[in-house]
Amino acid sequence: MEKKSVREKIEEICNGRLPSLYDVATKIGFKKDPMECSQRSVCMRIGAAGGGEKILIYDNGQKYKNLRSGKCGDVVAMSIEFMDRFSNYSHNWTSFYKEWQDYYGSVQNMFVERHAASNFQEETRAYIPFTPERWETKPFGPTSNVSLKSYLQYIRCIDRDTLAEMCGFFNTIKDTKYGTHNGKDIVNIGFPLYRVGEDTPCGFEIKNVGYKRTAPGSDVSMGMWSATRANLQDVKRIFFFESAIDAISYVSVDRMKAAETGTPRKINLDTDLLVSCAGGPKIGQVVSLKKACPQAQVIAEFDLDRAGHKHDIILNNIWSNQTIQISNVNKREEKLFTAEKVCTEEGKKEIQDLKDAGWSSYFRKDGSTLMYRSNLVGHEVKFNGQTVNLGLDELTLPKLANSFRDYRIMIDREKPIRGNYIKVVNDQQVSVAVKDWNDRAIADKQQRRAGLQRSVEKIGVIKQHQQEKEAVEQAQRDAQIAKANERIQNKSGRKI
């Protein structure tokens, strides 16, 4: 029997009626970004502006474009590109098809209505609440999955001592619904999320090789991953991170720096609290922590990118009870194609290339076509009756404090040291800029390896020089002995 392609299999599951791109994108975690939507396209994101994935859905909802990877296509192509988000924590086609069957086996009511102007209308979808019983967790320890240890030590570059210290704050996790493949369990790293004052998890951050997401239904508006040995009322400092991996990487970076410099470690879990917001900080998370730890000092440990700087501002505003209005400033680009050019093959190709790049089109009565798009070029910020315009890279806490005389910074910030590390992309080694604390941990480990390699090479050169010197000295001794023997032989007449 001939093996079916992914497209043929999905079309068979859906009886030839594919669900809408908007619905599938929403299911796998994308959210509509109204600020960047246009009349002809819908912008959707995973993550905050300035980071994560960003796609455009256009052509009456039939096509998408990933603005980060450049990939484009229909709903099947998008599902394949984001398979790791779609297939419920299982890296295999069986669970991928099973989830398609569960969600889209009957699609009579799964299509998204469209307005006449090609705007998309969000449909009401059933909310799947988080159920702790679905997840089988085990402590992370010496008997844990070897591949998960390798993932944390050799891919995430977290040292053994840090893992030993932090292993009580995360688990190995298995999805009992989609957690097996060919009779083998599929196990990942699970970082439990808790609401302040509760002992039952309200979600999980889930990580593995090339794979990251939150468990379905996780409450990331109130729930947080945390690590401390202190009671909340005794906490002196709260360190906010975007992910639990970043927090553990920070501990590893701090430990290794202290060992190399002989200085005390910065982190002390007897008095400090590490928190992952599972993304950016939310009002519910920050307010509940402020009530539980009113005297604590706050340190923002977010990423180096624009989203990280925006998280700094959000955290400071919530903690200090200040309100700032931030609006996007867009610049419109236009390209006009005359009626004559629209009919040429060159014109059609150029228009299609622009559509694939996220441009929208407007057809005029005279037969011409206007292509246009809006690019984010800056921000308009309002505070206490004052208004300033800032560039894309100027939206930072220090810049706000300099722009508004009454604006107060009530938190501390710490960013990873900038630099580069080597990453394998498409079987090629490329240099990548450090963005977060895990990148910093990887870069530090690579630098230590490079330093060790240089030391080994230097020792090798020294040994080589020493061997060469010893060889010369030995040759000189041998020559002296030979001359002495020759003199004795000449004097005695006997061969030595």
Automatic annotation (TrEMBL):
Superkingdom, taxonomy of origin: Bacteria
Organism, scientific name: Parabacteroides merdae
Protein name: DUF3991 domain-containing protein
